[in-house]
Design goal:
- The strands form three sheets. A five-stranded parallel beta sheet has the order 1-5-4-2-3.
- The protein is globular and about 65 Å long.
- By secondary structure, the protein is an alpha/beta fold.
- The protein contains 14 helices and twelve strands.
- About 30% of the residues are buried.
Length: about 350
């Protein structure tokens, strides 16, 4: 009989080790926060087994799956045994639905004397838990929402506040995207919607209080949609507008976007996306300047000609609690802390 456990029973268990036995591709797309990937089937193996399941039979798929799995069983056993540490840790296995993949490894380990658990419903069961509790985990939260033009350093302020022990919700970090045409530069692949929701759910679940700093965003960050409960609470939040000089903003953007030759090439390629808003000649000039390493001119031009007008048109109706003109970043951070304390 399986030792089946619900996610709600281990959600706050710090001694629990979650092991995702799905393929590496599935794991990268979305998993439970903190889970370790020990795949039963590799990506190409899973594709082969899936094809056999559809085109031939369940038996053919199972036979091929066992063939693939058997080659890695010694390594899988050793990896999990090392984590088990004579039962000091609670090992919980999961696959997509809590079916054959997690069940097969569970049976093997249990027969060898390693007491493990299987997550009810697998990853889908975890997703159901998040969906059922998403509105609740946001209930009672009051957001202090940092607004400002591109390059003002809102994300940097969030990081500084987090270092000082304040609760933050880093939406761009959770999305792995900055929310604009150039928002993925030097960041790699954006997170999936499911992974985004996992990140923000975990951040809110682990908050210390109900006053949370967050960066003002449109409802869409790249391909990610901010869930309605979060978005509505942000709209009702305490909105702070931060102003800064174009020189300081340019410095922040260069530091954030330019991380070597690859990021410059990526930036040059992405500039074509702006041709529908800026004329072709201007975009080609920006490309030339980037190749010449004149990043400052490009940053300032893009802010003045594209980002600032776009921002002003989108946010001019905001009713801001306070406007902070940044002269010194430490002073601005202290002012944000003062606002926090006044609303505690």
């Amino acid at each position: 009989m399986f030792n089946i456990i619900d996610y709600k029973d281990i959600v706050d268990d710090k001694e629990c080790i979650l092991i995702d036995v799905r393929s590496p591709k599935e794991y990268k797309e979305a998993t439970i926060k903190g889970a370790i990937n020990i795949p039963v089937l590799l990506d190409d193996e899973r594709d082969i087994v899936g094809t056999l399941y559809v085109r031939e039979s369940v038996e053919a798929a199972r036979t091929k799956g066992i063939e693939f799995i058997s080659k890695r069983l010694p390594q899988i056993f050793n990896d999990i045994q090392n984590m088990y540490n004579n039962g000091e840790k609670k090992i919980v296995l999961f696959c997509s639905r809590g079916g054959m993949r997690s069940g097969s490894i569970y049976s093997l380990l249990y027969s060898l004397g390693i007491k493990v658990y299987k997550l009810r419903g697998g990853y889908k069961g975890y997703r159901k838990y998040i969906n059922d509790n998403f509105e609740g985990v946001n209930k009672g939260v009051k957001y202090i929402v940092l607004h400002g033009k591109t390059g003002v350093g809102k994300t940097e302020y969030l990081k500084a506040l987090k270092e000082k022990g304040f609760d933050i919700l880093d939406l761009e970090g959770a999305a792995n995207h900055r929310g604009s045409f150039l928002g993925s530069i030097s960041l790699g692949k954006s997170n999936t919607q499911k992974m985004f929701e996992t990140e923000i759910f975990e951040a809110l679940k682990n908050r210390k209080g109900n006053l949370v700093f967050v960066e003002g965003e449109s409802k869409r960050i790249g391909n990610i949609i901010i869930p309605e409960p979060i978005w509505s609470s942000m709209e009702d939040g305490i909105k702070i507008y931060i102003e800064d000089s174009i020189e300081n903003r340019s410095e922040i953007l260069i530091k954030e976007y330019i991380k070597g030759n690859d990021s410059v090439k990526e930036l040059i390629d992405c500039l074509d996306n702006l041709k529908r808003y800026l004329n072709d000649k201007r975009v080609e000039e920006y490309k030339k300047l980037l190749k010449e390493c004149d990043y400052k001119t490009v940053c300032e031009e893009l802010m003045l000609k594209y980002y600032d007008p776009l921002y002003s048109n989108s946010f001019k109706i905001k009713d801001f609690y306070e406007t902070i003109v940044n002269k010194d970043r430490n002073e601005t951070i202290n002012r944000l802390i003062d606002i926090y304390n006044k609303n505690t």
